[in-house]
Amino acid sequence: MLLPFLxxxxxxxxxxxxxxxxTRLCVNxxxxxxxxxxxxxxxxxxxxQRFLNQxxxxxxxxxxxxxxxxxxxxxxxTVLTYIAAAGVGMIGLSYAAVPLYRxxxxxxxxGGTAVAGHNTDQVETMKPIRDRIIKVTFNADTHASMQxxxxxxxxxxxxxxxxxxxxxxxxxxxxxKPVIGIxxxxxxPFEAGQYFNKIQCFCFEEQRLNPHEEVxxxxxxxIDPEFDDDPRMARVDTITLSYTxxxxxxxxxxxxxxxx
Length: 260
Fold this sequence. Notes:
By secondary structure, this protein is an alpha+beta fold. It has helices at 2-108, 120-125, and strands at 115-116, 134-142, 149-152, 156-159, 164-172, 179-188, 196-200, 207-209, 214-223, 238-247. The N and C termini lie far apart (153 Å).
C-alpha cells in the first residue's frame, strides 16, 4: 500500500515541476516578445518623426536659401541701377565739361585764361602801379585745317598794372570761298591769367570772312593792380597773350584754354 502512494507522490511532483518549467518558459517568451514588441513600436513611433524632422529641416533650408537668392538678386539690381545712373551722369558731364571749364577759367583765370568781363567801377578807380613795368607780347596761331592768315599787328606792348591797353590782330581769308573761324586764347605764365582782364575781345565768337577779305580784331585789356601784391608774380615781367583760330565746323570742339 505504501509503495503505490509514494509512486503517485513522485509522479505528481514531476508534473508540478514540468508545469512550473513550462510556466517559466511561457513567461520568459512573453517577456521577450513584449520587449520586442515595445522596441518595434518604439522604432516605428520614432523613425517617422525623425524622417519628418529631417524633411522639415530640408524644406526650411531650401526656403532660406531661396530667400537669400532673392535678396542677392534684389541687391544686384539696385547696384546695377546705381552704376547705370552714374554712367549716364558721367557721359553728361563729359559733354558739359569743356564749356563749363571754359566758363570757370574765364571767371578765375585758371590755366592761363584771361578773366572775362570787368568791373566798370574798378577800371575807373584803379590806380596804376607806375614802378612795375610789364611787357606784354602777342602770339597768333591757326589750326592745321584753318586757311586764314592770322597775325598780331604789334609784337609787344609795355604797360603797368592798373593801366588799360589796346592791341590789334589781323585776319585775312586768302581762299575763294567764305570761311567762318572761331578763336581760343591763353596767357603765359599761367598764374598771371587771373590778373589779365579783357574788356573787349574777339575770342569764342564766330568770325566770317568772305573770299580775300581782311579785318582788324581789337583786344582791349588791363592787368589788375593786385598783380603787384602777389608774391608769385614778383619775378614776372613778361606776359604773353596767345590766340589760336580754328575753322568753325559742326560738331567740332575747341580745346580748353590754357592747354591748346
